[in-house]
Amino acid sequence: MKTIYLKLFFFLLFLPLGALAQGTLTGTVLDQATGTPLPGVNVVVEGSNNGASTDFDGRFTLSNIPSGATVAFSYLGYRTETITYTGQSNITVSMQEDANQLSEVVVQVGYGTVRKKDVTGSVATVSDKDFNRGAIVTTENLLNGKVAGLTINTSGAPGSGSEIRIRGGSSLFASNDPLIVVDGLPIDNATNTGSTSFLASLNPNTIESITVLKDASATAIYGSRASNGVILITTKSGGKKLSVDYNFQYGSGRVENTVDVFNADEFRAIIAANNPAAVSQLGNTSTNWQEAIYRRTDFVDNNINIRSNLFGFIPARLTLGNTYQEGSRLTNKFNRNSVGVALNPAFFDNHLKFRVNANYADERNRFADGVEGSAISFDPTQPIFDPNSLFGGFFQFDNGVNANGQPIIIQNAPRNPVAQLLQTYDRGENRRFFGNFEVDYKFHFFPEMRAVLNLGFDEANGERSRFVPAGIAASGPTLADVPFGNNDFATEMRRNKLLDAYLVYNKTFNKFNVDVTGGYSYQKFERQEFVQGNQNDPNLPSNFPETNTDTDVVLIGFFGRTNLTFNDKYILTLSYRRDGSSRFSEENRWGNFPAAAFAWKMREDFFKNSQTLSDMKLRLGWGITGQQNIPASNDYLQTYVTGNGVSQIFFGPSALPIAISNRTSPNIKWEETTTYNAGIDFGFWNNRLTASLDAFYKLSEDLLVDAPVADGGNFSNRAWQNVGSFSTKGIEISIDGTVIQNNNLNWHLNLNFTKYERRLEDLIYDQDILVGPNIAGTGTQAQVYREGFTPNSFLVYKQLYDTAGNPIEGAYADLNSDGIINENDKYIYQNPDPDFLIGFGSNLTYKNWDFSFNMRASIGNNAFNQVNASRAQLNQLVPNGFPSNIPVNVLDTNFNVQSDVILSDIWIEDASFLRMDNITLGYTFPKWIGGLASLRLSAGVQNAFIITDYSGLDPEITNSGVDATIYPRQRQFLFGANIKF
Amino acid sequence: MKNWKFRLLCLSALVIIFQSCTDDLDVVLEDDDQFMSEEFFSTPGSYKQALAGVYGNLSLTGANGAESSFLQGIDPGTSHFARCWWYLQNLTTDEVVWSYENDAGTRELNRNIWTSENPILLGMFSRTMAQVALVNEYLRQTSPDKLSARGVNDAALLTEIELYRKEARALRAYAYYVLMDLYGKAPFITENDPLNFGGPEYDRGELFAYVESEMLALIPDLKPARTNEYGRIDQAFAQMVLAKMYLNAEVYVGQNRYSDCITQLNNVINAGYTLEANYLDNFKADNHTSTEMIFTLQSDGAVTQNYGATTVMVNGSVGSIEQNGASLGVSSGGWGGALRIRKQFAQKWDGAGLENDQRNTVISGVRPIDIDDIADRDQGYIVAKYSNISSTGAAGPSTTFVDTDYPLFRLADAYLMYAEATLRGGSGSMDQALAYINALRTRANGGTPGGNIAMGDLTLNFIIDERARELYWEGHRRQDLIRFNRYTGGAYNWAWKGNAQNGIPLSNNFRVFPLHVATLASNPNLTQNAGY
Q1: Which of A637, A644, A767 sits opposite B521 (nearest CB)?
Q2: Contact B133 A899 (CB under 8 A)
Q3: What is the pLDDT confidence band of residue A48, given thresholds at 50, 70 and 90?
C-alpha cells in the first residue's frame, strides 16, 4: 500500500494532469543482429511525457497513445527507431547497433554509471579497444598519453610502479596519488614487500575500461580521497556466449643510452693529464661498465580469457595470465601469475544481480641494486673479472687479507658493479587476493529503487629475502673492512576491507528524470610487517626479529548524489559526501564535501538543423574534495615510543631503551581542494570527430604541511598543521577523430593537449621550505616551496661566466649585493613542471592490416642534472686514492671542486621531449582454421625513440625534477599473436 | 502497511549498524613499541625508561637507530646534540675544517659566513629545545598528582622519581646554558606551560639568572659527585655548568664572577676525581671508565648508535692518504679525510717543552700544513686524538659507530679554568693554579716534569693556547676564543676565518649565532640577533 502512496506522491509532484487515455500498445524489442530481446529500451511517445521501458524479455506496454503519435525506441549504443501509432496492438521492433556510440555507452562515475552524453563533470573513459598496445606490464600504462591532464611516469624497472598525476596533484606534503578504485574497491596505493608496485598484481588483460574523474564535481562523491582525482578501473565481466581469447607476446629489449663518461683510452689520458701520480693504478683493459651491468632482456606474456555462461545462467569470465619480464640490470626479473574470475548472474527478471570479481596474483621478483652510480664511476681500465681475485672471481680494489686470512676491502674505493649484481640474491614474492562481491537488487514492488551492497576485500602477503655471501661479496656491509654479507628476511601483510551500501532511485516524470543515489561506505586498512634483520651482522640490534603493526586507518563516509535531467537537455548533478577519518581527532574528524555540476546540451537549442555539428554540450562544475592521506596515522594522539636495540642509554652497567613522547598534532584536519571546471564537448559529422575543451582552477586550502612549530613546545621542530594554499589552473583539449572510414580503410586519430600551472599561494609563516632530494653530501636540497612560485622550483646560485662564455668555477652572482656569497644569494630558476603536454595516437586499419602508434610530448619541463652536478668535477678523478670515472660534461665546464659548484644553475636543463611509446603493425586472419577462429599476428617496437635536447640519460624523470641516476627504460622489439575462438 | 514497517525496521537497523561503525574511527595503537602516555606510565619501570629518553636526546637522534630522528626536515646526524655543539664550538675556529662542504651548512661554518638559513643552527636550537620539551613532559608526567592518580605509592620508587625529576631539571637548565652561550637567547618554557606553547624570549641575562638559580637550588638534592650510576648526572655536573657560566660571565652578562667560579671549581676538584694516567685514555672506546670524567655523552657501537660527535671525530680523523682507520678501530678508510686541522692550531705544538707532549696527536707526513682548497683532503695536517680502541687495545664492536663517549666535562678542564679564573682575579691560589697546570703537563709528558712551566709562564696568553692543546676537539674553542677576545675582530686570524685563506677579521655579531628563520617564524616572540 505504502508503495503506491509513495509513487502517487511523486506523480502528484511531477506529472502534469490531463493526459487523456486513447490506446494501448504492447510489443517486443529485439537486437537486429542476434534476434535476442533487448531489456531496458526506452519507449516514449514523442512530444509527451508518456513512456515505458522494456523488461528482461524485451517486452513493453504503453498505454494512452493518441492515434498518429510517433513512438520512439531508444537504447544506449543503438540507433533510435520510431514508429507511427496507428492503432497496432502488438509490434516487434528490431534495433540496430550504432557503431559510433557503442564505445561511449556508459561511464563509471563512482557508485553508479551515467550515459556518456549525460556526463556533467570532467571525465574521460578509455576502453579496451583504445588501450595502448605493446609491452604493458602494469595497468596504468594502458592509458599513458591517452587522457588529457593525466601523466604517468614509469621507471625502467620491470613491473615498476608509476608516478600517476591528474592535473598535477593537489597537495604539498600529503599524497598526490589519485584514488584508484578497482570494481568499486578503493585500493591502497602502497607497494607491499616483495612487490614492485601496488598495481603490479592487476593483470592489464583483465581490464575492460578505465575512467578518469578529473574535476571535483565528478570526484566529490569520493570525498576525502578525491582531491587528486579518481581512476576507476572496471574489469571485464562474464559473457553469455562461450568465447576464448588467447594472447601471446614476446619482446626482446635492451638499454639504448647510457651516461657519457670517458672510455678507457680517454680515461688514461685525462688521468695522465690531471693526476699523473695515479697513472700507475690504472689497469690495462677496457671495460664499458654501463654496458656490463645491462643485458638484452626477454619479455613473455601469455594470457587467456575465457567467457561463458555457466550452467546457462551465470555469465562468467576466467582470465589466466603469466607475465615474465626481465630487467635490463643483469639479474633483475619480474614474473607474475594471475587468475581473474568474474561472475555476473542475474535473477528474477534482472531484479537481483550479483557481480563477483576475484583476482589473485602471485608476483615473484628478483630485485637488482641500483648500481648505475658505481658503473658510471668505476675505472674503465679495469677488468670485470680477475683470476687472482679475493672476491669471488671479480675484480675489486682490495687490501689483501687480514691476520685471520680474510680478504679485506678498501672502504672508500668503488665496488665492482657487476659483482654487486651477480653476488646479490634479492628475491621477493607477493601474493595478493582482491575482489568484490556486489549485490544489486531492484525492488520488486518498487522497481524505481535499487539497493546495492558492495563488499570488497584486498589482502597482500609479501616476503623478501636478501642474501649476499659473506667474505667474497665486496658490496656487502663490513666489519673491520671484512664484508660479512646479508642474510635478511622480511614479510609484510596489507589488508583493506570495504563495505558500501547504497540506494539508487531513478524515475522519469514527464520531461524530468531523477536519479538519486545515497549510501554509506566503510573502509579499513591494516598493515603488519616482520623484519628479521641481517643474520650475518655480528652487531645485529637486540630488537630483531622485529614485528611492527601499524595503527589501522578507518574511513567512513555517507554520500548522496542527485542527477536531475530536464528534457534530456539540461542536467544538474548535485553530490555530497560526509567523511570521517581515523587520522583526526573527534572534533576534527568529519569533513563535508559538496559538489554541483550543470550540463546543457546546446546543440538542440542552437544548431538543431546543422548537418555538421552533431553534438555540443556545455559543462560547468564546482566541488570541494578532501585530503587526509599523510604518513602519520595517529598524530592527533600523544603517544610514546620506546627505543629499538640500538637506541638505548646506559644507566650503570645495563642499557635501557629510551622512551619518548612522539610529536603530536592534536588539531590537524582535512585539507580541502575546491575545483572549478568549465568544459565544452563538440561532435561533428555524426560524432566522427569529437572534441572536448576543459578549463579548470583548483585551490587547495588548509594544506596539510609538516612545518615548523615553536621549538620547545612540542617534541620535534615540526608537526603536521593545516596552513597555506596552493592553486592549479589549466586547460585540457582532447580531439578524437576518424579521418577515413570506409569498408577497407579506417584511420582513427587521438590527440590531447594539457597545460597546467601550479602556484603556491600561501605558505606557513610565508616562509620558504626547502624540498627535493639530496644533491650531494648531506641535506643539500636544490628545490623550494616559495609563495608565488611553482612547487619544487629550483633554488640555486646564478653562475657567472667569463667573456668567452665559459663558467667560472665557484663564481656566483651576488644577487643581494652584500659582498658575501651565501645562502641569501640563491634565486629561483625554472621548475620541473611542463609548459604543456601532448599525447598523440594513431590507429590505421586497411583490410586485415592494422598499424598503430602512440607518442607523448612534454614541452618546457626542466631537470636538475644531478648526475653531472655531483660527479662532473676533475678532482673526483681520484677521489679516495683510486681513479674514478666522471661524466664527460666536465670538459664543457672544467670544474674541479664539487662543493664549489653543486648548486649552480648550470645544472638545470630543458628536459622537453617527444617519446614514441609504441609502434605496432598487425595482420588478422579472420577465418583461421576454417573459420573457427581468428588470428592476429603483430610486431611492434616499445619505446621506439625519444627526441630531446636534454644531455642526461632520459629527460622523463620522476624524482620531482632531479635527475639522479635512473633505471633506464629499455627499447623492446615485440612480436604478438592473438587467437579468438 | 506491513511492508512499510518492515522497511522502517531495516532502515533503523542500518542506521544502528552505521552508527556503531563510526566508532571504528577511534583507532587504537597496535604496535608493541607504541603506547598511549597513560598506558606507557602504567609500569614502575616506565619512569626510569622515560628518564632515559630525557638523557637520550643528548646522545641519540631518534628511537630507531642512527638514521632516525625526533626532528624533521634535517639530517639526523646534522641535528645530533653533541655533534652540533662540536661543529659550532670547533668547526668555526682554528681547530678543524670539515672537508665535505657539500654537506649543507658546513661550508658556512668552516668559513664563518653563516646566515639564519644554516641547517646546523636549526639542528642545534631545535635539538636543545627538544631537551626542554622532554624535561617538561617528564615533569608533567611525574607530578605528584599524576603519580597518586596512577596509584604509585611505593616509597622507594617515589624517592627515586623525585631524584629523576631533579636530574631532569638540571638537564633543562643545562640546555638553557647551551642556548645562552650559542644564541644569547631562548624561548622560556616550563612544565607549567601547555603543549605547543611558544614561550617568551629570555635574553642572556634572564637565562643566566635562571640557570644559576636553578642549578644552585638543585645541587643539594642531586647525588654527590661520583656517587650516581654511570650515565647520570650529579652535583659536579651542575657545578661545572655554574663554573663555565661564571668564567664567561663577563661575556654573557658583563659581570666579574671569577671568585664564584673558583668556588664551584673547588667543589668539583675536591670531589675525588683524579687525572687519568694516560691522556689519550680519555678519548678511547672505554673512556667512560676514566677517573677524570665528570660527565660524558654516551656512544656505544652495539646499543647506542648515533652519527654524533665521537663517531664523526673518529671516522673523520682518518686520513685520506694515511688510511689509518684500523689503528683507530674503524674501517681503514674511515670517512676519507673528513676532518683536518688548520695551520694555526698545528702551530700550537711548536715551542719549548712541547717536544714530547703526548697530547700532540698531529700527523703531518707528506701533507702541506696549509689548506688552500678545503675540498682537497690531502692538504692540512690531521690528528688522531679519538679512537674506537679501548685502553686495553680492544676495538669496539662496530667499525662505524664508536664506543667512545663524548667528554662533556672533565677534570683537566676544571684545572685550566681554575688557573684562568685565578689569573683573571678570582679567589684562587696562583700556586695551586701552577700545580694544576703542571699536573697536566706532567701527565702529558709521561709522568715526567719535562714540559712543566714556571710561574712566570702562567699567563692568560699561555692559558688560551694551553686550553687548545689540552682540550682541542672537545667543544670549548669558540667559547674560549670569545672570552679571550680573539674570535671576532682581527686579534687572531686563522685559515679561512671570514672566508679568506689566511683569515680576515670577523664582525662582532658573530659572537652569537643567528636564530634560524624557521625558529623565528614559528615563535613570533623571538627576535633575531643584531647583525643577522
Answers
A1: A767
A2: no
A3: confident
pLDDT digits (tens, 9 = 90+) for B279-299: 999 999 999 999 999 999 999
CB–CB contact A880 B336 (8 Å): yes
User: Is residue B162 pLDDT above 80, yes or no?
Assistant: yes
Average pLDDT for residues A624-646, to the nearest whole number? Answer: 89
B532–A contact, CB cutoff 8 A = no
Dump pLDDT digits (tens) for B356-384.
999 999 999 999 999 999 999 999 999 99
Binned at pLDDT 50, 70 and 90, residue A98 comes out as low
Give CATH for domain B45-221+493-532.
1.25.40.390
Domain boundaries, chain A: 18-97, 102-238, 244-792+831-861+911-980
Q: What is the DSSP letter of A188?
A: -
As a three-state string, the secondary structure of B408-447 is EEEHHHHHHHHHHHHHCCCCCCHHHHHHHHHHHHHHHCCC
Q: How many CB atoms lie within 10 A of CB B510?
A: 22
- Say which CATH topology domain A244-792+831-861+911-980 has: Maltoporin; Chain A (2.40.170)
**Domain spans, chain B:** 45-221+493-532
> Nearest CA of chain B to the CA of A550: how many Å?
6
Read off the pTM: 0.88
Contacts of B77 in chain A (CB under 8 A): 778
pLDDT tens for A297-342 read 999 999 999 999 988 889 999 999 999 999 999 999 999 999 999 9
* pLDDT(A19) > 50: no
CB contact under 8 A, B28 and A480: no
Residue of A651, A657, A719 with shortest CB distance to B232: A651
- Fold annotation for A18-97: Immunoglobulin-like (2.60.40)
Q: How far apart are the first and last CA of chain B?
A: 81
ipTM of the complex: 0.94
Residue A624: name the closest of A699, A674, A587 by CA: A674
Chain A touched by B155 (CB under 8 Å): no
How confident is the model over B19-36, as a mean pLDDT?
A: 79
How close B117 gets to chain A, by Cα (Å)?
A: 7
Alpha-carbon distance A307 to A319, whole Å?
9
CB contact under 8 A, B50 and A659: yes
How would you classify the pairing of strands A25-31 and A90-95? parallel
pLDDT at A40 over 80: no
Q: How confident is the model at residue A601 (pLDDT cuts 50, 70, 90)?
A: very high
Nearest 5°: CA angle at B289, between B286 and B293?
110
Contact residues, chain B, for A661 at CB < 8 Å:
37, 53, 134, 137
- Cell 613522547 sits at which residue? A661
CB contact under 8 A, A399 and B332: yes
Tell me which residue in A706, A776, A822 faces B108 most closely, judged by beta carbons.
A822
Contact B133 A538 (CB under 8 A): no
- What phi, psi does A815 have (nearest 5°)? -65, -25
How large is the average pLDDT for residues B222-236? 97
Evaluate whether A841 touches A917 at the Cβ level (below 8 Å): no
B301 close contact with A: CB closer than 8 A: yes
Please give, rounded to a whole number of angstroms, the shortest distance from the CA of A495 to a CA of chain B: 15
| CB-CB under 8 Å, A822 with B113 | yes
Per-residue confidence (pLDDT) for residue B17, from 0 to 100: 58
CATH number for the domain formed by residue range(s) A102-238: 2.170.130.10
In eight-state DSSP terms, residue B388 is S
Q: Do residues B262 and B427 touch, judged by C-beta distance below 8 A?
A: yes
Smallest CA–CA distance, residue A404 to chain B, in Å, is 15
Q: One fold for both A18-97 and A244-792+831-861+911-980? A: no
